[in-house]
Amino acid sequence: MLVIGLDSTVLTVAVPTLAQDLGASTSQLQWINTSYTLVLAAALLPAGALGDRYGRRRLLLGALALFGAASVVCAYAGSADTLIIARAVLGLAAAVMIPMSMAVLPVLFPQQRERSKALTIWVTSMAIGLPLGPVLGGWLLDNYWWGSIFLINVPFIFIAVAAVLLFIPESRNADAGPLDVPGVALSSCGLLALTYGLIQAGERGWGDVVVWACLAAAAALLACSWDGSSERSTRSST
Fold first, then answer.
1. Rounded-to-integer distance, Cα 126 and Cα 98, Å
2. Which of 80, 117, 191, 235 sits 20 to 30 Å CA-CA off 37?
């Protein structure tokens, strides 16, 4: 959770360096920053549903390995386009790591008191990573090259993989029904539109047409996914 928070904000201080070293345009710099968040938002709900059905430990290990590999690709990216794609893969891996790491807490800590402590640590780790990103990123840029802001993820990933292999048993939801593909697609697109709209609001201002178009699309897609899921659940129960 710490590295997920770090990667959300660590690039804020590296934009001028990336523009110079990779020859990135303004549009490419924007996508380097936002591709991580957009993919994370779009894949978060489907990742949780897949873990309930196919095994949380298995998906968590795969996501950790993918996050570590994508971090190395980001560090040694030779072009802005490569960095954008690698950042999107980082977002995909993070989208799986977040719900899977939370879902295993009740399995590891069946007692309410222990589970509450574990959840507090889980939340605090990500919360610390968000403001720590620019601070740590600035220090690394002053002392090393820009790729080092991604390589700091790798030791954390090795520790996390070892911990999962040693301590976390496989678990899944035995009562999980069939995957609601239309509902997942609508909700993912809705979260994607919502996140993109909020990002654009910070850059274009709240009076921009694109911002409100994205927010309106997000509201419509999420409403359709909610109504469709409710209807399909009722039909399935009947």
1. 10
2. 117
What is the average per-residue pLDDT within 203-220?
81
Domain limits at 23? 2-179
56 and 158 inside one domain: yes
Distance CA 167, CA 230 (A): 37
Check residue 227 and give its pLDDT. 61
- Please tell me the predicted confidence (pLDDT) of residue 237: 45
- pLDDT given for residue 154 in this prediction: 92
Q: Are residues 104 and 43 in the same domain?
A: yes
Q: Are residues 105 and 115 in the same domain?
A: yes
Q: How many CB atoms lie within 10 A of CB 201?
A: 17
List CB contacts of 90: < 8 A, sequence separation 6 or more. 7, 36, 67, 70, 71, 74
Domains identified in the chain, total number = 2
Q: How far apart are CA 214 and CA 134, in angstroms?
A: 28
Residues 33-58: tens digit of each pLDDT? 888 888 888 888 788 778 777 788 88
- The pLDDT value recorded for residue 234 is 45
How far apart CA 47 and CA 33 sit, in angstroms, is 22
Which of 144, 179, 214 corresponds to the end of one domain? 179
Domain boundary among 179, 203, 225: 179
Q: Do 60 and 169 share a structural domain?
A: yes
Asked if residue 74 and residue 116 are part of one domain, the reply reads: yes
CB atoms within 10 A of CB 147: 17
Give the whole-angstrom CA distance, residue 95 versus residue 1: 11
- Report whether 97 contacts 60 (CB < 8 A): yes
